Amino acid sequence: MGFSADDWTAIALTVRLALTVTILLLLIGTPIAWWLARSHSRWKGVVGAAVALPLVLPPSVLGFYLLLAMGPHGPIGQLTQTLGLGTLPFTFWGLVVASLFYSLPFVVQPIQNAMEALGERPLEVAATLRAGPWDRFFTVVLPLARPSFVTAAILGFAHTVGEFGVILMIGGNIPGETRVVSVQIYDYVEALEYGRAHWLAGAMVLFAFAVLLGLHLFRQRQSRAGWNGGGLTP
């Protein structure tokens, strides 16, 4: 049977969405993880809980509030309208914004755990060599925490590919615009086209297995090299 033209469109859109979200999450999540790893602020617990919220919230709840926030009367919607971008629901960039929220802990927590595991010693040694804060971050922290960035990128990408509830609420089901693979499978099941649903669902199972196996092998290799950072804290 193979994939139909609509399947390939959904696959291409899913990959484009996951790549966009992963790159943005690494840029946004790194300073958040650094602050959470180093801060002694009384707000650290609040920020950490807010970042981890998508791990325990039902996607329908998160999607509902994101839909309100991005609507014409929500704070995000008013901001995008002020900037002349219109409203984001039922657009590709609406999916991107929603994905940034629900995939955030899958990127922040591995990086935060690795940065906490570094300890103070490498930074103190760099400081004695007159390395400034930015030098210490870019020449000490980032290289030592590099494996956690690989883990975070894999988890962020895979979680974005597999999400369904938030995507359906924010994006609806617009072919070529917001219909990703998980929604395409839902469409096939609704239409009782189980054969086509099997093709896409089976591909998703293989993808998820390959991601987990690759992550396991990567962690084994890093563990033998003495690195034990990364992972999620629900």
For the biggest sheet, the summary is: none
Described by the principal axes of the CA atoms, the overall outline is globular
User: pLDDT below 50 for ≥5 consecutive residues: which ranges?
Assistant: none
User: Which class best fits the helix and strand makeup?
Assistant: mainly alpha
Radius of gyration: 20 Å
What is the first-to-last residue Cα distance? 40 Å
Number of DSSP-assigned strands: 0
Q: Give the helix level as a range of percent.
A: over 70%
> What integer is the average pLDDT?
88
- The tally of helices reads 11
Strand content: under 5%
Order of helices and strands: HHHHHHHHHHH
Overview features:
single chain, about 230 residues, mainly alpha, about 0% strand, globular
Notes on the structure:
The protein has 234 residues and is mainly alpha-helical. 76% of the residues lie in helices and 0% in strands. Helix 6 (121-128) packs across helix 7 (133-144). The longest helix has 34 residues, at 5-38. The chain is globular, with a radius of gyration of 20 Å. 31% of the residues are buried.
